[in-house]
Specification:
Length: 388
């Protein structure tokens, strides 16, 4: 069995944007630990390219340098997706992968799944089946289509299987394995950088991280929050309200940074106790989140990381594709509702807020489970895979 597997084409692992890296790093380690599996080729599409969005995270996560970088860069969704497809196709033609492994829900995830699917190359999707049921989110379209294309769908929470069943995806393709991003979190937590050190390195008074009230962390980058002036002003007004109670530290994504300037929001932010930072590395973010009293975010991954860290999270969205973080974890959906956010902050400052519990199989061993399953799956005759 092992020999035939090794002679199959490589496992082509795709990353494109920041939230992919913490998912792929443990997978690469787990694949490498199974000598029977084919070799790995790491392809970076180049969707994210800034040092802070990219190379620093690679170093923090001890990811090897990509074997190939497609250097697609930024563009509209159609341009970016098409460009990834155009550049990934010859890679697939040349390498003839035994399987293409994609993670998450960014444009690169969908683009590479589509190329591989049309060439009849097996696709494994890690973090399948999450649904916000909000098609205004570009990621929701990416999730829906990637899951239709994937041969194996690895899920992080049990509700994902219900979503997939509703879309006609056979249960034999779905594997509940847990959350690979939590593998990274648990592996790197001991190396997390103390918030005071992160602030000091940015030339900011470290006392902000050491005050008696503690501090909160903000991340915002979704188009629905930061691309329209009305929405972004409303979000900033809510944050200014929070900052009157507890100081906030905000590592700003390039999309949000550009719009802070464009919409003239810098003055109200600098008048409030809100410290803006450049996008941070993985270990800095881990340190900030783990030590925060509250995190305010519109990120998907941070909803899960705060649940794993047992830190209250106020998600500035109307919905979440990760319902387990609300049902079992520390997450509360608050949108941009200042009054609701104020009430949640009251509770957090009074009694610590939601503590939650860590969901099933978020145990740091998800990548191992995926590697073990993939080894068995690839060794099966094609017709026997997924029930024939
Ligand atoms: C992408 C993902 C989103 C993910 C986010 C995390 C999609 C549809 N979206 O959104 O799911 O949560 O990454 O960061 O794939 N830019 C830079 N440097 C970079 C990359 C981008 O300055 O290295 C700027 C560019 O001006 C670009 C903008 O940020 O136009 C947006 O980047 P893009 O990759 O298109 O989407 P994100 O908003 O980062």
């Amino acid at each position: 069995m092992g020999d035939s597997l090794r002679s199959a084409g490589p496992l082509v692992c795709v990353v494109g944007a920041r939230p992919n890296y913490m998912k792929m790093a443990p997978l690469l380690r787990a694949f490498g630990a199974r000598p029977a599996l084919p070799g790995v080729v790491l392809v970076h599409t180049g969707q994210h390219y800034d040092l802070a969005m990219n190379e620093r995270l690679f170093a923090d996560l001890q990811l090897p340098a990509p074997d190939l970088n497609l250097e697609v860069g930024s563009g509209t969704h159609a341009v970016q997706t098409a460009e990834v497809m155009r550049r990934f196709e010859p890679v697939v033609d040349e390498l003839k992968p035994g399987c293409v492994i994609v993670v998450g829900d960014v444009n690169s995830t969908l683009a590479c799944s589509l190329v591989a699917g049309k060439k009849n190359i097996p696709v494994a999707h890690v973090e399948a089946g999450l649904r916000s049921y909000d098609r205004e989110m570009p990621e929701e379209i990416n999730r829906l289509l990637t899951d239709q294309l994937a041969d194996i769908l690895y899920t992080t929470e049990r509700s994902a299987a219900d979503n997939l069943q509703r879309e006609g995806i056979d249960a034999s393709r779905v594997q509940f394995v847990g959350n690979v991003m939590i593998d990274s979190l648990l592996a790197h937590r001991p190396r997390a950088i103390a918030p005071a050190q992160t602030l000091e390195r940015a030339g900011i008074d470290r006392a902000i991280a050491e005050g008696p009230a503690g501090f909160g962390v903000v991340t915002l980058h979704r188009p629905s929050n930061v691309d329209s002036p009305d929405a972004f002003c409303e979000a900033v007004a809510a944050l200014v309200g929070v900052a009157s109670r507890i100081p906030l530290v905000w590592p700003v994504h390039p999309r949000a940074r550009a719009n802070i300037d464009r919409f003239g929001l810098a003055a109200s932010l600098s008048a409030a106790a809100i410290t803006l930072l450049q996008p941070q590395g993985y270990l800095e973010m881990l340190g900030l989140m783990a030590n925060a009293r509250v995190v305010l975010t519109d990120s998907g991954g941070i909803q899960e990381e705060t649940t794993a860290l047992s830190v209250p999270c106020l998600t500035m969205r109307e919905n979440t594709e990760r319902p387990i973080t609300v049902e079992q974890g520390t997450n509360t959906l608050v949108g941009r509702d200042s009054a609701l956010i104020g009430r949640c902050i009251d509770e957090i400052l009074r009694n610590g807020g939601k503590r939650g519990r860590v969901p099933e199989l978020w145990d740091g061993r998800t990548a191992e489970r995926i590697a073990a399953h993939l080894e068995t799956w690839l060794a099966m005759p094609k017709l026997a895979r997924c029930g024939g």
